[in-house]
Automatic annotation (TrEMBL):
<feature type="domain" description="DUF6593">
    <location>
        <begin position="30"/>
        <end position="185"/>
    </location>
</feature>
<dbReference type="Pfam" id="PF20236">
    <property type="entry name" value="DUF6593"/>
</dbReference>
<protein>
    <recommendedName>
        <fullName>DUF6593 domain-containing protein</fullName>
    </recommendedName>
</protein>
<dbReference type="InterPro" id="IPR046528">
    <property type="entry name" value="DUF6593"/>
</dbReference>
Length: 203
């Protein structure tokens, strides 16, 4: 979700938690191809996500670093590619098992000898699990939402929460999240078009 001119008077609201996660990153705006991810507690920028004008290449960068954490290349006729920092260029589906148009979840990757699964719940919200602890998410995402609170329109900001295990592989969590959430939104948009429904997601 991105702000329109008519939204200029809408207040952005940060998330609150009963039990604070170890790290919460806000997405401003809620656009997984072009956004700034800031740390909720400090306001410090953790990642910049930048795409070219044709939206075929997306770089995930840490502030002040020249080399991207990841370069994502999306193609129409050939497999999507990704170059992770310090690794060789590869197809996304080689890194993320289960990735592909309308493929079923979970979508999985390996890091530090462990396998991690991105799963979705009944309202298509993403959560990440260690395969050895399938009942306890180590990261989860909430999309932005428009609400009316005390008679005033507000936008509840999009956020990605992480527990300590996710922080230990933070770059992989962030990059895989951006790829999988984009796939999820694209699949949902395609499904909406088939069903004749409009979609407000930013892809």
């Amino acid at each position: 979700m991105t702000l329109k001119r008519s939204d200029s008077q809408i207040t952005l609201v940060n998330p609150t938690f009963d039990n604070d996660p170890a790290l919460v990153l806000l997405l401003k705006p809620d656009n997984v191809k072009q956004t700034t991810m800031t740390i909720l507690r400090t306001g410090q920028v953790a990642y910049n996500v930048e795409s070219n004008t044709s939206l075929t290449k997306c770089s995930v960068l840490r502030p002040g670093e020249k080399d991207p954490v990841a370069l994502i290349e999306r193609k129409d006729l050939f497999p999507d590619k990704i170059t992770l920092q310090g690794e060789e260029r590869q197809t996304i589906k080689s890194w993320l098992k289960g990735y592909g148009t309308f493929k079923e979840f979970p979508i999985s990757f390996e890091r530090s000898g462990n396998t991690y699964h991105w799963k979705i719940n009944f309202v298509s919200q993403l959560a990440l699990f260690n395969a050895n602890q399938p009942d306890h998410p180590i990261a989860w995402f909430e999309r932005s939402k428009k609400r009316v609170i005390d008679g005033k329109p507000v936008i509840l900001q999009a956020w990605l929460a992480m527990e300590p295990e996710a922080i230990s592989i933070q770059d992989a969590v962030v990059v895989s999240f951006l790829v999988v959430e984009h796939k999820l939104r694209t699949d949902m948009k395609a499904g909406d078009l088939v069903a004749g429904r409009a979609s407000n997601y930013v892809f």
